[in-house]
Specification:
By secondary structure, the chain is of the alpha+beta class. It has one domain: Roll (Nuclear Transport Factor 2, Chain: A), CATH 3.10.450. Helices cover 36% and strands 17% of the residues. The chain has a four-stranded antiparallel β-sheet. Helix 1 packs antiparallel against helix 4.
Length: 179
């Protein structure tokens, strides 16, 4: 028997494209420094690349816990405010008062996971202790891809977490300047 999924009334339009644009700089999963003999800079680059890949897959597959696992609270606040602005619907306004896990779970409730995971690239990684910056691209220019600079911090667990920035926060906190 085929079961159809009905979107809740508050889901007015597909949120994945704006979320992907906002989330282009988010990261999840991936531990830096797991490879033996890597330089600290190479370990950071690999950790950030792994984190971005894990995040992109988590968003595509609707794994809210994994997607939220390694972004900082400051980044989540910035990202969700930008997403609410881009969605332009009062139905989404309450998302900014929810945790990352609550909001993504709510968004995922009305749609199916993606069958494919977008391509991504990480470049221009610069490390300064426990802070790093990188240039991230998700998708391709032919498919409406997004590029942005981002700042990461290394959590006590060793995971590189996205710390800054989404949307207008890029202007307020340039990600190429360590805190």
């Amino acid at each position: 028997m085929k079961v159809s999924r009905v979107k809740p009334a508050w889901v007015k339009r597909d949120w994945r494209q704006p979320l992907a644009a906002v989330a282009v700089t988010m990261a999840a999963g991936g531990l830096a420094g797991c490879g033996g003999g890597e330089s600290p800079a190479a370990a950071a680059r690999n950790g950030i690349r792994d984190s971005v890949g894990t995040y992109v897959k988590a968003i595509a597959k609707h794994d809210a816990a994994r997607a939220c696992n390694v972004i900082t609270g400051a980044y989540w606040s910035s990202a969700i405010l930008q997403l609410v602005v881009e969605l332009r619907s009062s139905a989404y306004a309450g998302l900014s008062r929810e945790t990352c896990l609550q909001a993504l779970t709510r968004l995922y409730a009305g749609s199916r996971p993606s069958a494919s995971v977008p391509k991504f690239a990480v470049s221009n990684v610069h490390v300064n202790g426990r802070v790093a910056t990188a240039h991230l691209t998700i998708g391709t220019s032919q498919a409406g891809g997004s590029s942005v600079n981002a700042r990461f911090v290394k959590a006590p667990s060793g995971t590189w977490q996205l710390d800054c920035c989404a949307g207008s926060a890029l202007v307020q906190h340039p990600p190429n300047l360590p805190r």
